Amino acid sequence: MGLQLAITDLEQLKDRPEAAALLASHPAAVTAAKFDRNELTLWLDRIALRDACLTLKNDPQLQYNALADITCVDWYPREPRFEVVYHLFSIPNKKYLRLKVKLSGDDANIDSLTPIWPGANFFEREVFDLFGVRFDGHPNLIRIMMPENWEGHPLRKDYPVEGYR
Amino acid sequence: MAHMTPTPVLDPSQDQTMILNMGPQHPSTHGVLRLLLEVDGETIVRVMPDIGYLHTGIEKTCEAKFYQQVVPMTDRIDYLCPMTNNLAYCLAVEKLLGIEIPPRAQWIRVMLNELTRINSHLVWLGTHALDIGAMTVFLYCFREREDVLRLFEAVSGQRMMTSYFRIGGLALEPPLGFFERVKKFLGHFPGNIDEYENLLTNNPIWVQRTKGVAYLSAEDAVALCATGPTLRGSGVDVDLRRDLPYTGYENFKFNVPVSNDGDVYARYMIRVAELRESQKIAMQALEGMPEGPVKADAPKVVLPDREKMKTQMEALIYHFKIVTEGFTVPEGEVYMPIESPRGEMGYYVVSDGTAKPYRVHMRSPSFANLQTLRKMCEGRLIADVVAAIGSIDIVLGDCDR
């Protein structure tokens, strides 16, 4: 099999239906793209996230109607440090799409996807709990894994693996 | 965690509903799930699941381990389907590395995965029936489950935490006589499924406790991120084994049971039908088992055979290097979803080019499926909550990670 070189140029990927649909409706929304190991990733501007998801969900061709997963990656000490990662799944087309939004450490806020998919609720609570990213418009943004009075966000890279002693 | 969650304050002047605490130590919550039920008499007004009791921080621990050291951790996420978790993680790292797995290893992986599905569904069926009051089924199911666990023990040395799959193939060739034992088990298993069905499928008490109970519409199931039998029970036809085949599933013929009823009975019928399909797939794997190696030809990733290690200098060096410093994985990220007995088990692995994963995230089916509980239970009786929890088939280890 071997690995093929990743395509990281938005110009080369702008004809992909997902990228084309987003570029047509929100020209400034897509900031970067990558096609690597048969998986397409689009980086979005955080203001455009909710509209972009609605576009992808309602587009008659694309039909990304299911949310598979939300998680986050902490690139500390690099800035912007957080990358919130969304995996969308199209049930009719059986295809996955990865969306990413970069957030800086001192302003880690992003729109919640719960108005589009109520199932985003637990995923966003988990990211909030373990990374400290806040989701605006979430109905119940409280810790889900850790105790209510826990200090810190364990999956951040500056949080020691063995915890604070 | 739960004991910290403040109990919602109700308006005393209204004085109509009360909060009923269910769990975390409750026999029918399948582990340590705590539910806050707001009830109006016997009727559920609101369900608030409270999880986190089994949170062990596996995702954080993975970041401190070499890639190959993560495999045993994946067993412990979902103790009813260790092989599925092993497989999803190994496939993710193999995709990152770009290595190809020999057909024999793929076939054995498929066979063991279907045995794992049988194992998991048997525990589900037994405990689900026990929750609703049918005690005998539990004894029958655990009889066959014991057979499967003995097979796991034969192949991996462990009954539950198997860790049998490796990045690049399998740990070892299965022992002599193993395939005959699997064949013997698969031979009598369809008859066993008939036994369970005789006890339940047309049993009037079972039908009354499950039919029309905990209804979930297709729209709600998709909106709430449900997957697996919970989603197929609501009439959405998704099975990743068929739709996005991995590890050679495209070579097997099987049906995907779907039902439009969306109730507990539909999810029961789907899982029982899946038991039969799993038996068929495992039988096909057994009959078409190719010959050849069970490890990929990737000396920098796969540990050499014991004999080679003791006779060849090069193999010894590779062995030493893999064990002491791991192997590096090219930079990148993959999301590897597979169909676990509970639904979509996805591993999102990010590599920064070193020997340890930068981030491992498990998208676990129990966690997402638990969100459907609210829709299923509201407006129904307390006794139906137990049936609804059983029909989602959650494993709290999988849920909390």
What does this structure look like?
The complex is a heterodimer of chains A (165) and B (401). In chain A, the strands form two sheets. In chain A, strands 1-2-5-4-3 form a five-stranded mixed beta sheet. Chain A has a two-stranded parallel sheet with strand order 6-7. Chain A has a domain at 10-112: Beta Polymerase, domain 2. In chain A, helix 4 (120-131) links the parallel strand 6 and strand 7. The N and C termini of chain A lie far apart (46 Å). By secondary structure, chain A is an alpha/beta fold. Helix content of chain A is 21%, strand content 28%. Chain B has 401 residues and is mainly alpha-helical. Chain B has helices at residues 58-62, 71-75, 82-97, 103-132, 135-156, 178-200, 204-210, 218-223, 229-232, 240-243, 264-287, 306-311, 313-325, 365-369, 372-377, 382-392, 396-400, and strands at residues 18-22, 34-40, 43-50, 165-166, 169-170, 332-340, 343-351, 359-363. In chain B, the strands form three sheets. A three-stranded antiparallel beta sheet of chain B has the order 1-2-3. In chain B, strands 6-7-8 form a three-stranded antiparallel beta sheet. Chain B starts with 17 loop residues before the first strand and ends with a helix. In chain B, 52% of the residues are buried. The model of chain B has no long low-confidence stretch (mean pLDDT 88). Chain A binds chain B through residues 1-3, 6, 36-37, 39, 41, 65-69, 71, 73-74, 85, 87, 91, 94, 96, 98, 117-123, 126, 130, 142-149, 154-155, 159, 161, and chain B through 1, 4-6, 51-52, 55, 57, 59-61, 63-64, 95-100, 222-226, 236, 238, 243-244, 330, 332-335, 337, 344, 346, 348, 350, 358-359, 361, 363, 367-368, 370-371, 400.
